[in-house]
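From the pipeline queue, job 12 of 40. The input is one protein chain; the requested action is below.

Action: predict structure.
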Amino acid sequence: MAPGEAKYYPTQLETFVECPFKYRCSKDPEIKRKHRKPTAQQYLGTCIHDALEVFFDIRRTAVSARTAEKLADLFRRAWAGVDLPPWKKRDRVDERQKVFGGDRELEGSWGRQGLHLLDRFFRTADRTVIPYTAEQFHEAKLSSGAILAGKVDRIDKLPDGTLEVVDYKTGKPPPRQDDDSVAEEDLQLSAYAIVVGRKYGLSVSRCSLIFLSEDRKIGFTPTADLLATKEARIEEIVRSIEAEKDFAPRKNNLCPWCEYREICPVGKDIPPADRVAERPDVPF
């Protein structure tokens, strides 16, 4: 397949760098269907994103209606899939069953964690913002002709007419939290800045990560030099993918958590991670 015919997402590129075998498995619908094991953390994140999407959508939630109670209700509705189209609701219900297996106590603990995260966010966030876009897919062509795409949590238009790319995180912040470290280590935000700037013809002046668990917002200014460096790196990964023949596994620290460990020539001999450790430690 020629690069111009291919579409790549930042998370896919990161997966390939982590392990070509995992990348190949994640691109195969049948393998993915058989072996994908959704986690409680993933389910929680999906529902939080759904709730925040509606909360900040001026067509569905007026600014005056953005209350803590409203946000909590949106989260509960997302959890149950109440407002989803029928086919998507079925998927949400199926995933809920796979994750929690009918264990109401376990499910409740994760649901309360989500409410706690959103309550912290509500108390510190700017609730008057009207996003340029929220939870929308965007794409743009790279110089090679390959398409870079992604679903951006939020794009805000700042007073000076520039854009800010915002990504919500439900996990813990990285150990290094200064702007330079985030700019250096985070490929996804820079990729979004490239896509958004190219799509709208506007300057992206800020890339931000909002960590709901700690009321923390960190990020960086995506300079032209930085984005040129990141785009070159993205193009390099794309070329590697296009040239790859074997997609051999690459052993790494994430192998115990890999969904495809059981069919991996390397991973099948690695003990799985203790999934019980994912139970949240929350003060309620």
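Job complete. The chain has two domains: 3-27+131-243, 37-124.
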